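Hey team,

Sharing the Glucose-6-phosphate 1-dehydrogenase run so nobody has to redo it. Sequence (487 residues) first:
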Amino acid sequence: PPVDTFDYIVFGGTGDLTMRKLLPALYYRFRDGQVPADARIIATARSPLSREEYQARAQQALQEHIPAASLEADTVSRFINLLYYVSLNGAEAQSHWADLRTLLDREPATRIRVYYLATSPALYGQICENLSKQGLVTKQSRVVLEKPIGTDLESANAINDSVGRHFPENHIFRIDHYLGKETVQNLIALRFANPVFERLWTSDAIDYVQITAAETVGVEGRGAYYDKSGCLRDMIQNHLLQVLCLVAMDPPVSLDADSVRNEKLKVLHALKPIKPSEVAIYTSRGQYMRGHVNGQTVGSYLEDLGEGVTSETETFVALKAEILSWRWGNVPFYLRSGKRMAEKCSEVVIQFKSAPWTIFSNRPAANRLIIRIQPDEGVMLSVSTKDPTPTDSLTLREADINIEFEKAFNIRYPDSYERLLLDVVRGDPILFIRRDEVEAAWKWIDPILQGWSKNEAPLEPYPAGTWGPEGARNLLAQSGHLWHEDM
Ligand code: BG6
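Structure output:
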């Protein structure tokens, strides 16, 4: 069913995120009948564009990012009709706010308004202040903040404080698009609907856990942002810690947003701090060099940044996290993410303990549960079975129990933004990050950044198209553990 009608006001409306993710996501929801025909999408940015010019750009973006088979001409033109454009500098009080107000005032003030800030986080506070001074924050207004919220705990607090002066916490939607991924949400279903897993979901049965988000792309055109951020802030502080929370949390008492977020917060609070002096033991960081990805030669990170640039920014991180709780005592959670790696693959690997004793001539391999976030969303459990080759003894061989969701349910898997953008309209914050979660995550990340800034762990080069530097392998080898590709 369609959601209640709305105005979506996007700051950063000509930017990459809007063109690549937000408009295509809204298009798909519109096509499937969930966006009402009188909803409006109002893009704002500094460029002086007419509505028609903006619509033409948007149409081109849809063509670039959506397969032709899903673009039906009539649907596209009806969708494009929902788009408006206001040339506005959201950070300036003197800008063309009157134009935005006139447009918004055409509809009753009871209409849901979503202010989506797809801009630099440094502007969030000013934009919210201007919205509020201009009288544009109605009872039905919500604000969406893209990550990263700040670059450390202090700056995150400053941003949250300044946004919080104009919007109540339950109207602030901090987006982490990993939570919109189907298989990430499926972690909740898998764990809390299947006793067969949840009964084993403790240190009694689990040896270690790995969470990987590997990409084959490099820094692309985002060097200016990325070089100030680096992989720890860009991926680990948010996406990977969120996935860790869903893997590690205790059962929430209900699917109410705060019940789930309370449990996630407990995990973040239970993370054993990694002191600056310990980063060499618990973390590995790397930067990609020239190499080969999918059969093509690609340049190094420094080459991607531009000529004559030097940088100590990490494009790869692996780390060992520990959760101080009864459930997880002695179970390491290895997290890693990187650009220009061997494959694009995001997954969770639950490595179970081996059988305590064997009656077979070869040792059964320990069971492994793989939750594949992307691509090819699925769940796979490795089991030892009888080797069917006729021999004189009963020997074992590993095989997989494998569900591939797209095949199992025969549907297109929606992009994560599709669900999240309409959840904001519905006012459902379950898949958004509460302020205290952001703070707890930064509190854990900050000392690692401090240790690195003192050079306590070397920045190791790795060739593009590999699984990262040697240090990442050593991190697990110390405990006799292996990354998935080495198993
Ligand atoms: C973003 C990061 O949050 O996530 C990017 O800023 C990264 O650097 C992207 O490429 C990865 O998302 P996905 O959905 O492709 O795994």
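Residues 74 and 80 are 10 Å apart (CA to CA).

Ping me if you want the raw files.
A.
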